[in-house]
Amino acid sequence: MLQYQIDRIDHQISDDRSQTGTFLIGPLERGQATTLGNSLRRVLMGGLEGSAVTAVRISGINHEYATIPGVREDVLDILLNCKQLSINSSNPETEIGRLVVNGPMEVKANDIQFSSQVEIVDGEKPIATIQEGHNLELEIHVERGVGYRPVDRRNQETTAIDLLQIDAVFMPVKRVNFTIDETAVAEGATGRERLTMEVVTDGSTSPDDAIAEAANQLIELFQPLATVTMVEEIPEEPEPSPEAQIPLEELNLSVRAYNCLKRAQVNSVSDLMGFSYEDLLEIKNFGSKSADEVIEALERIGISIPQSRTSV
Question: Region (Alpha N-terminal domain (alpha-NTD)) spans which residues?
Fold first, then answer.
């Protein structure tokens, strides 16, 4: 298999602390660049775990359509500003940040007090503007998750009336683009391809880490396929019929026929079912009269055997 290299050819950090990384992957066999690009993009955009604000409690407010005295932004604007926060929480449980401030003040993300397990990526993100003589008290809930989680309106009745739920966007990768270029090869050789990927994150993770995590998820997805073996199913043997389990003694054969069959290791009807008429004649001291006697005894219980052995 053709070995390829991965080079990060560009890395930029924007004013909002989002990061953009451009990676060059190649050379690849024809068609592999599309397969690799689509697979990585799918996992990067929807499969990585991230952190997001899931709920906000504002003192004195119990619904999102209210206004707060002395605050320029209404509640919906504050919720939207909190939803857009880029946050990285290392705690698998819910983290709660708190804000208690007096005006005049322009509240920014850095003013929210979290535990040491929560990092606010863009601390300059505005939250609200408070006028003199007024205050604002907030409680912000942060969780970890994957993908997009809309508010479940059915469960809102079980939550506190003043806890305002937010549609949570846990995706740390904001955008992924890729292009495919053909590389020059020697005359007569199969064409090669190069994959250029641009990964934009919200800053809570780097493009390098995002690519690595996506690749590891794909490895875990495909790893079981590498050990697939075809197990031949052994057909279950059908259970013998009640007639087949009848012992030889119950057929009421003559002493001569009975003794000959016993010497041939025939002990039940199931053993006889493996014989043909020709096979019976080959038993030592077993003539046609004895063979006919066995055939008649089997027919009385509804069993017949072939005249001649089946040729293989």
Answer: 1-229
Residue 75 identity = V
How far is the C-alpha of 109 from the C-alpha of 114, rounded, in Å?
Answer: 10
- Cα 109 to Cα 119: distance, rounded to the nearest angstrom: 10
Q: How many helices (H) and strands (E) does the chain have?
A: 7, 14
DSSP code, position 133:
T
Residue with tokens 């206004």, as numbered in its chain:
67
Preceding peptide of 238 cis, ω within 30°? no
- The CATH number of 50-169 is 2.170.120.12
Under DSSP, the state recorded for 238 is P
Under DSSP, the state recorded for 105 is E
Q: How confident is the model at residue 312 (pLDDT cuts 50, 70, 90)?
A: very low
Its pTM stands at: 0.68
* 261-to-108, 250, 264, 279, 308 alpha-carbon distances in Å: 100, 13, 5, 11, 18
Decide: 247 and 261 in contact? Cβ < 8 Å. no
CATH architecture of 244-300: Orthogonal Bundle (1.10)
The domain spans of the chain are: 5-48+172-222, 50-169, 244-300
Fill in the DSSP letter of residue 90.
-
Taking only the tens place, the pLDDT of each residue in 95-144 is 999 999 998 999 999 999 999 999 999 999 999 999 999 999 999 999 99
- ∠ at Cα 153 (151, 154), nearest 5°? 130
DSSP string, 239-266: PPPTGGG-BGGGG---HHHHHHHHHTT-
What mean pLDDT do residues 18-32 have?
Answer: 92
Assigned CATH class of 5-48+172-222: alpha beta
Mean pLDDT of the region 65-85: 94
